[in-house]
């Protein structure tokens, strides 16, 4: 298994199911990859769909301030 940091960006009003589908599609290109952490901008980290997905999958969520 290859542990990766997964950077996530998305538009407002996205659902957890849409995020999950997009992440699954990206990870399908790397079958040995398993997210060790999900990183996003601080304002995105407050979005319930992303928090829900990360909690469901057991992925730590890390937020960064925009540069």
TrEMBL record:
Record-level GO BP terms: cobalamin biosynthetic process
Record-annotated CobE/GbiG C-terminal domain positions: 5-66
A Pfam family of this chain: CbiG_C
UniProt xrefs under Gene3D superfamilies: CobE/GbiG C-terminal domain
Stored InterPro entries: CobE/GbiG_C, CobE/GbiG_C_sf
Transmembrane segments: none
Listed name of the protein: Cobalamin biosynthesis protein CbiG
Source organism of the structure: Burkholderia latens
């Amino acid at each position: 298994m290859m542990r990766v940091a997964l950077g996530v960006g998305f538009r407002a009003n996205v659902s957890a199911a849409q995020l999950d589908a997009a992440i699954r599609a990206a990870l399908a290109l790397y079958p040995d990859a398993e997210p060790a952490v999900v990183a996003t901008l601080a304002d995105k980290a407050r979005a319930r769909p992303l928090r829900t997905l990360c909690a469901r999958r057991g992925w730590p969520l890390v937020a960064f301030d925009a540069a």
